[in-house]
């Protein structure tokens, strides 16, 4: 190997190491940001100081002189129902089961366990948060989707964010290509946002419910990623 090739190789390895070292810092920042946003919104909800802002954003998605009618053509309502189903527990369980099965078949047992524990614990966290805050659902319009639980935080927003960010973390772990990593993160963010916005559009959640759900989902996915990475590092050093 020539001197130029050796220098280039060392330079590329150094860049790769610095990029990998930056990931935990970014994830820690996401954890802190998500936790802060969730707690800030939760405090406003508990004190009832966010209702006026919620109503303003909520009604912005409705026809001004007929709030019962959401904005847009009839097909948009049908599309919202189909998009919101992506955040339903049935589809999330199915997606997680398929991915977990693939990980087991390829003998990535640690990643399979990580996926199951992260998503299931995120769903449980959302459920108990709803029980604690017990916020009523929006009462301004008729709901366009069936609901069974309290409003805060949005269970769909939490579940879809935790699930897709966890799946994105798996792809990032097994693929070194930066373009692939950026792509899967963008997909996770886009789907999480669409599902959350569909909940507001269908009249079943206040905007603050969804924002808090996104924040809690990001914080929980970040926390479990950091714990998983710390465990892998500890096992590798023993």
Overview of the structural elements:
- There is one protein chain.
- The chain has 238 residues and is mainly alpha-helical.
- Helix content is 76%, strand content 3%.
- It has 8 helices and 2 strands.
- It has helices at 3-47, 51-60, 74-84, 89-105, 109-133, 155-174, 178-201, 207-236, and strands at residues 62-63, 66-70.
- It has a two-stranded antiparallel ribbon.
- A hairpin with a 2-residue loop joins strand 1 (62-63) and strand 2 (66-70).
- Helix 5 packs antiparallel against helix 8 and helix 6 (155-174) packs parallel to helix 8.
- It is globular, with a radius of gyration of 21 Å.
- The model is unreliable at 7-16 (pLDDT under 50).
Distance between termini?
34 Å
Percent of residues in beta strands: under 5%
Report the uncertain regions: 7-16
Number of strands: 2
């Amino acid at each position: 190997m020539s001197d130029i090739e050796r220098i280039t190789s060392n330079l590329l390895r150094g860049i790769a190491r610095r990029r990998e070292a930056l990931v935990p810092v970014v994830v820690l920042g996401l954890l802190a940001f998500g936790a802060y946003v969730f707690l800030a919104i939760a405090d406003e909800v508990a004190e009832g100081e966010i209702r006026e802002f919620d109503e303003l954003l909520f009604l912005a998605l409705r026809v001004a002189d007929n709030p019962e009618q959401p904005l847009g053509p009839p097909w948009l309502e049908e599309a919202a129902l189909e998009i919101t189903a992506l955040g339903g527990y049935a589809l999330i369980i199915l997606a997680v089961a398929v991915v977990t099965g693939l990980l087991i078949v390829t003998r990535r047992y640690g990643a399979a366990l990580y996926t199951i524990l992260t998503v299931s614990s995120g769903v449980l966290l959302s459920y108990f948060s709803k029980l604690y805050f017990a916020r009523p659902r929006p009462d301004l319009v008729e709901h366009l989707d069936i609901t069974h639980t309290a409003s805060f935080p949005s269970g769909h927003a939490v579940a879809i964010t935790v699930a897709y960010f966890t799946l994105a973390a798996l792809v990032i772990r097994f693929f070194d290509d930066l373009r692939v990593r950026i792509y899967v993160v963008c997909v996770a963010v886009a789907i999480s946002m669409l599902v959350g916005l569909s909940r507001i559009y269908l009249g079943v959640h206040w905007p603050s419910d969804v924002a808090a759900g996104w924040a809690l989902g990001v914080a929980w996915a970040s926390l479990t990623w950091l714990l998983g990475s710390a465990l892998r590092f500890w096992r590798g050093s023993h």
